C-alpha cells in the first residue's frame, strides 16, 4: 500500500492557490490576534488600527480592568506613539501596563513604518514583570539591608563620593558613625530575635527628622552611618546629634522586655576632617572610639589629638600581637598581706608588656584591647606558663603555701570552651589548689554560664574563686547570695582615704558583714598610706590587703637577683615618720596595677 501522506499535505503554492484573498486576511488576523506578545498599529491621527488580544489585556481593554484604567493606559500609549511618529524614531522602553494582578511592567518596542503611503507605528510589547521583580529583589539584596531596609555601606559611600566630586565652597556635610553600646550583651541576655528587633527600632528613631538630602545607612551588625548634607556649621550638627542621643535614651519595649540602649557617636566634617570618604569614615570611627573609652552614650567630633591616640593604639596592638607571638612579655607579682601578722597570704600575677622603646606598659593599656582582638585567651595561657616556669623562685620568695591569683576577663569566664581548656592547664601544673581565679562581678551577676558550667569544674580541682574590684561593677546582693566565691577584693575606690570618709566606712562595714555571712575572706585593694592601713587595723576585722604601701608589683628579674621578700624586711610601722611609711623593697618607677 502506497504511503498517502505526501498526497495529503498540500504544498505552500497549493495552499495559496486554494485560499481566497478574504480567507488569507482572516487567517492573518487570527494569527496576529493570538500572538503571545502585544501588538498594536497606530496611525498619525492617534487612532489604533489594530490591537491584538494580548495588547488589549495590557492596555486594560479586556479582563474587567475598568474604564478608567483602560483610558489611562490607552491615552499614554497614544501620546507616546504620536511623539515617536512625529520624530520618526524607533525605540525600546519599559512602560507600565494594566495586569490582572496589578500594574505590569512591559518591554515595548516601537517602530515607525510606511504602508501604502501611510505613516504607521508598529508596536510590540512583552510582560517582564516577573523578571523585574527578580531584578528588584537582587538590587535590594545588594544595596539595602534586609533587616532594617536601610541603604548599605556601598550606597552611602557612593553618595558621599558624589558630594565630594561636586564640591563647591560652602557645601559642607557631616558623616556620623553610630554604634550601639553593649549590643553583644543585649544579644546574649535577651536573644538574637530581640537584638534584631532592637536594631529595627533604633533605625526608626535614627531616621526621624531626616531631610531628603540626608541618608542613614546600616553598615554592619550594630553600626550605622549618618550623612547630614548640607550643613552650615558644627553647632548645627551638634544640636542634631544631641537630639538623636536624647531620643535613644527612652526605653525600647520589645517582646515584653524594657530595654535601654545607648549609642556612641563620632562625627567628622567635610572638608575640615578629610577630603575622601575613607578618611572621613576613619576619623568618625576614631571619634566614636574616643566616646567608647570615655564612658559611652555620648558624641564627639574628630580632632587631631584623637588621631595621635589611634596611632598609639595601633602601635600597642602591633606590640601586643608581636609579644604574644614571640612570648615577649613578663609577669610581676604583688603580695596579698595579712595586715596583722605581715605574712604573705598570696600573690597576684600581673602581666606586663615592654614596648619597642623599652617602656613597661601596664595592663590598662592593652588588656581591653587584647579582649577586643580575641588575644586574651592566649595571653592568659602564657601567664600561667610563666608562673609554672618560675614556681621554684616564687616558692622561695613568697613561700610554698602562698596562693597564686590569675585574672580572667568576664568574657573568658562566660566561655566554657576556654575555661575547660584553662582548667585542664591548671590541673596539668600538678598544684591546681595553689591557684585563685580572679573575675569581676559581671561574670557572676549577668546571664552567664560561669556559675552553672565553669564553677563546678574549678571546684572539682580545688581552684579558689575571687571577686575582683568588688563594688564598682554590677553589684547585686541577690546574685551574691548564689555565689560560692572564696574571696572578695574591695576596690580601691572604697579604700582611698577611708579614715576621712564616714560614708565609705559604712559601706565597708556592710561589705565586711556580707562576706562574713557568705563565708568569704576580704582583701582590701590599693592600700597606699599608713592612715588607710591603721583604720583597717583598728576599725575592721579585715585581715588581708594589697597595695603599694606593702609592695609594688615585683618583677621576676628582681627575684632572680635575690631581692628580699616583703615579710622578711618589715620594720615597725610606728618607728618611722608617717610620710615615709611606704616600703620601697619592690618599688618600680611605674606605679601600675590591674
From TrEMBL:
InterPro entries reported in the protein's UniProt record: Biofilm_reg_signaling (IPR052155), EAL_dom (IPR001633), EAL_sf (IPR035919), GGDEF_dom (IPR000160), Nucleotide_cyclase (IPR029787), PAS-like_dom_sf (IPR035965), Rev_trsase/Diguanyl_cyclase (IPR043128)
Pfam families recorded: EAL, GGDEF
SMART domains, per database record: EAL, GGDEF
Compositional bias per record (Polar residues), positions renumbered to this chain: 565-578
SUPFAM superfamilies in alphabetical order: EAL domain-like, Nucleotide cyclase, PYP-like sensor domain (PAS domain)
The GGDEF domain, residue ranges: 171-304
Biased composition range(s): Basic and acidic residues: 579-588
Gene3D superfamilies in the record: 3.30.70.270, EAL domain
NCBIfam families: GGDEF
Protein name: Diguanylate cyclase/phosphodiesterase
Organism name: Bradyrhizobium erythrophlei
Record lineage: Bacteria, Pseudomonadati, Pseudomonadota, Alphaproteobacteria, Hyphomicrobiales
Amino acid at each position: 500500500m502506497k504511503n498517502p501522506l505526501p498526497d495529503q499535505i498540500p504544498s505552500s503554492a497549493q495552499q495559496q492557490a486554494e485560499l481566497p484573498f478574504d480567507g488569507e486576511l482572516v487567517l492573518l488576523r487570527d494569527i496576529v490576534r493570538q500572538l503571545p506578545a502585544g501588538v498594536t498599529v497606530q496611525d498619525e491621527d492617534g487612532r489604533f488600527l489594530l490591537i491584538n488580544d494580548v495588547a488589549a489585556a495590557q492596555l486594560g481593554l479586556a479582563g474587567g480592568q475598568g474604564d478608567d484604567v483602560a483610558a489611562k493606559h490607552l491615552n499614554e500609549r497614544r501620546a507616546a506613539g504620536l511623539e515617536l511618529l512625529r520624530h520618526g524614531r524607533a525605540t525600546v522602553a519599559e512602560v507600565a501596563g494594566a495586569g490582572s494582578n496589578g500594574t505590569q511592567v512591559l518591554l515595548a518596542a516601537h517602530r515607525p513604518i510606511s504602508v501604502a503611503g501611510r505613516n504607521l507605528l508598529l508596536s510590540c510589547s512583552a510582560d517582564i514583570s516577573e523578571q523585574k521583580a527578580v531584578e528588584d529583589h537582587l538590587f535590594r539584596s545588594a544595596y539595602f539591608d534586609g533587616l532594617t531596609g536601610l541603604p548599605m555601606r556601598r550606597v552611602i559611600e557612593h553618595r558621599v563620593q558624589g558630594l565630594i566630586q561636586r564640591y563647591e565652597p560652602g557645601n559642607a556635610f557631616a558623616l556620623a558613625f553610630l554604634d550601639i553600646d553593649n549590643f553583644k550583651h543585649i544579644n546574649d541576655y535577651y536573644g538574637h530575635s530581640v537584638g534584631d528587633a532592637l536594631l529595627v527600632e533604633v533605625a526608626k528613631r535614627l531616621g526621624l527628622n531626616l531631610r531628603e538630602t540626608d541618608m542613614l545607612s546600616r553598615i554592619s551588625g550594630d553600626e550605622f552611618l549618618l550623612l547630614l548634607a548640607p550643613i552650615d556649621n558644627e553647632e548645627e550638627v551638634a544640636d542634631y546629634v544631641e537630639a538623636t542621643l536624647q531620643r535613644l535614651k527612652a526605653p525600647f519595649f520589645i517582646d515584653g522586655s524594657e530595654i535601654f540602649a545607648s549609642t556612641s557617636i563620632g562625627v567628622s566634617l567635610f572638608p575640615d576632617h578629610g577630603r575622601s570618604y575613607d578618611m572621613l569614615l576613619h576619623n568618625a570611627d576614631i571619634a566614636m572610639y574616643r566616646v567608647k573609652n570615655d564612658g559611652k552614650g555620648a558624641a564627639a567630633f574628630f580632632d587631631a589629638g584623637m588621631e595621635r591616640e589611634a596611632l598609639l593604639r595601633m602601635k600597642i596592638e602591633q606590640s601586643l600581637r608581636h609579644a604574644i607571638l614571640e612570648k615577649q612579655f613578663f609577669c610581676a607579682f604583688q603580695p596579698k598581706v595579712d595586715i596583722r601578722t605581715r605574712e604573705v597570704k598570696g600573690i597576684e600575677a600581673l602581666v606586663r608588656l615592654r614596648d619597642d622603646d623599652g617602656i613597661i606598659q601596664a595592663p590598662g593599656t592593652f588588656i581591653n584591647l587584647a579582649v577586643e582582638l580575641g588575644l586574651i585567651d592566649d595571653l592568659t595561657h602564657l601567664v600561667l606558663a610563666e608562673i609554672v616556669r618560675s614556681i621554684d623562685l616564687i616558692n622561695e620568695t613568697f613561700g610554698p603555701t602562698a596562693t597564686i591569683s590569675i585574672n580572667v576577663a568576664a568574657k573568658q569566664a562566660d566561655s566554657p570552651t576556654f575555661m575547660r581548656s584553662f582548667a585542664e592547664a591548671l590541673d596539668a601544673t600538678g598544684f591546681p589548689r595553689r591557684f585563685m581565679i580572679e573575675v569581676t562581678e559581671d561574670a557572676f551577676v549577668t546571664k552567664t554560664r560561669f556559675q552553672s558550667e565553669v564553677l563546678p569544674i574549678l571546684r572539682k580541682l580545688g581552684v579558689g574563686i575571687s571577686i575582683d574590684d568588688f563594688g564598682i561593677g554590677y553589684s547585686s546582693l541577690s546574685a551574691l547570695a548564689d555565689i560560692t566565691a572564696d574571696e572578695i577584693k574591695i576596690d580601691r575606690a572604697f579604700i582611698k582615704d577611708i579614715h576621712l570618709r564616714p560614708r565609705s566606712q559604712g559601706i565597708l562595714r556592710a561589705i565586711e558583714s556580707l562576706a562574713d555571712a557568705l563565708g568569704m575572706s576580704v582583701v582590701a585593694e590599693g592600700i597606699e598610706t599608713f592612715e588607710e592601713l591603721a583604720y583597717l587595723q583598728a576599725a575592721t576585722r579585715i585581715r588581708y590587703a594589697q597595695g603599694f604601701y606593702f609592695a609594688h608589683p615585683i618583677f621576676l628579674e628582681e627575684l632572680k637577683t635575690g631581692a628580699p621578700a616583703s615579710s622578711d624586711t618589715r620594720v615597725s610601722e610606728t618607728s618611722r615618720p608617717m610620710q615615709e611609711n611606704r616600703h620601697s623593697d619592690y618599688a618600680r618607677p611605674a606605679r601600675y596595677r590591674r
